[in-house]
Specification:
The complex is a heterodimer of chains A (about 525) and B (about 200). With about 525 residues, chain A is an alpha/beta fold. In chain A, about 20% of the residues lie in helices and about 20% in strands. In chain A, the strands form six sheets. In chain A, strands 2-1-3-5-6-7 form a six-stranded parallel sheet. In chain A, a hairpin with an 8-residue loop joins strand 18 and strand 19. The longest helix of chain A has 18 residues. Chain A is globular and about 65 Å long. With about 200 residues, chain B is an alpha+beta fold. Chain B contains six helices and twelve strands. In chain B, the strands form two sheets. In chain B, strands 1, 2, 3, 4, 5, 6 and 11 form a seven-stranded antiparallel sheet that branches. A four-stranded antiparallel sheet of chain B has the order 8-9-7-10, with helices on one face. In chain B, helix 1 runs antiparallel to helix 3. The longest helix of chain B is centred in the N-terminal third of the chain and has 17 residues. In chain B, about 45% of the residues are buried. The chains are: A alpha/beta (about 525), B alpha+beta (about 200). Chains A and B meet through helix 5, strand 4, helix 6, helix 7 and strand 18 of A and strand 2, strand 8, strand 10, strand 11 and strand 12 of B.
Amino acid sequence: MASFAKGTGSGTGKYLLLLAAVAGCGNIVSGFRSSDPLFAFQWHLQNTAQLTGGVAGEDINVVPVWDAGNKGESILVAIVDDGTEFSHPDLRQNAASGLSYNYLTGSTDPGGTSASHGTCVAGIIGARDINGIGIRGVAPRSSLAAYNMLQNSTLANVVDAMGRNSSVVHVSNNSWGPTDATGAFTAPDTSWETAVTSAVTTGRSGKGTSFFWAAGNGALSDSATLTDTSNYDGYANYWAVTTVAAMGDDGIVASYSEPGANVWITAPSEGTSGNAIYTTDLEGSLGFNSSLSTDLSDRAYTKIFNGTSAAAPVVSGVAALIYKVNSALSWRDVRAILARSARKNDPTNTGWATNGATTPYNISYDYGFGAVDASAATALAAVWTPLGALVEHAPASRSPGLAIPDNNAVGQSDTITIAGSGITSLEYVAVTVGVTHADWGDLDIALLRTSGVTTESRLAIPHSCYDSASLPQSTTACTVGGGTFRFGTARHLGEAGDGTWQLTVKDRRTGTTGTFATWGLKLYGN
Amino acid sequence: MGTKGIFGVVGFGLAALLFAEPASVEWKDGERAYKAYLVPGLVAHFHPQRTERSRFGKNLAAKTEIELPAATIFSVPSAKYRQVFSSAPDRFQSPVFSDAPRGGNLRSLPGGVLLTFSEGTDVGKWAELNQRKFVRQIGKGPTWLVETPPGLTGLETARALGEDPAVLSSTPNWWIHLEPRKAPPSSAEAARLRRSWNSSKP
């Protein structure tokens, strides 16, 4: 099979015909799964080590969910992307009529004719099953809407895309963000935050829309140093989104996948083996499958879709399956279910720790709470007790005004002690840090909750920034407009809000100096 | 407005080239104040027709940096940058800004202002009284997109309308550089070189 994966287009076609015939006899995959001929190669759904480098079992464990009759029927997933070709034969049956939107034309056709990325994302979530063609999605009977916001990314359109149809949208998939691999600290506009907050608090009659967000692909811009982390992305680190990292078919983090304290969960994408995700593509030669001889012979599909762009829709699909179990769940319930049911992949990785929750969570900057497990998540959803009402607590911010010693391993620290927050179980913590410094790339910033078990949230490490406005890119100081940046951390999930919180800011490189000016916390929990 | 403000910022921008300190603009979104920094040499063009945008770039011998269905970002030779805004103003163009003095995300002004009104405001009457045209309502709440031409007019209009007591929030309808998360191929070498957060601890 490995030689097939790297074979020529004509060879691939012949092999597929043979495979389909064999599969139809039930010799390779059992029962109904056999009628989607590329399913046998969708290792992220069922990894039997069918592709060279893959490790059996490193998948999302979704087949038992389908076998139990759950395919995400009637659950609406919105795809915010560059466009989606809903005339694709593997997508059209699942397209929700009249709910898509085109920000170039104002029509309900989400403009997929020249935009392949959204078409690839759509297939991962909800390509139709048992139709005798192509692939299948994680939630192959879910309903799909798409908004081509990236083709016209004005603030008005970004805001609109977050809240469009929020009364009925269960899941919003967002495989996009600011430019990757610049190392820049990028804050979203307040209007975006307001729109997302509104959708999670008022969408679906108050149960909220679940926003899934790609962590980013800029971890290794120069193949030698960790440049970008998801911490620096003000979209992916917002409290109301669930951020998804990527692992390969060996269960190991993908080299490009950005780590961060904000990372919630991990899902399959291309890793070291080079086996990426099989999914739908634009029909014809305009998509990812264009002139690459190693891609599939049928240009309506591709096997090279990768990045956290591919990982996020896998989790969106799993969320659709969770909602199918119980559509009365809130977005917070779904997020908590994903965390509690996640699998500790790559278990020997030294980055794993446990936090101070009553029932501790495994936490990792690379993986969040672990790899998504559809069977475990849906099983937990069936017996889940809904979370209590959301409590938000923001203690008075601090203004330490401390000079940060240059190139010093100790740095400056300040503490906030919280009592009476009313939060016995944290869900997320936002941390706003104000530093006057000409190069935030010098800084090492960490939040510690020091009461009981000490849990660390590393928010920034020394790194270089690249000037996205200059081509070719050149290194530059990491500057932050206004000198204040909001970070976010998932790592305190389940811990109490009350306690002592310490923020430490170190300047770890010689050169420019600065001041630890202000900081503040906002706790979200129940 | 426009031209005076544009000349002001661009003039500042050319000075910035000399003094290595980019000019900046400020605005509010809700209660929060924001600042962006001029990127001298970059010009955004928002004509809906790609051919018209190409013609604009060709006339300036500009290099296309970012090509999107609704916008093109050009790199304009420094000798012609001032000319872009001073001679025969093109109503589809705007300066380009960065969220940080160096290396920030890009944004520009395609036209329009996002207005959120206080509860109970008769927005129809408000538009008539203020001689403003709504492009469309954003979502189901009291937020509307008000028409302005591309460029700094949107910034100045947002600032002016923000003073209106019926307006809760007034912010320019920025074009923001956002991209699909396309990844470089993962490789064994890259994976080997990847530093975990733990091993990078000081």
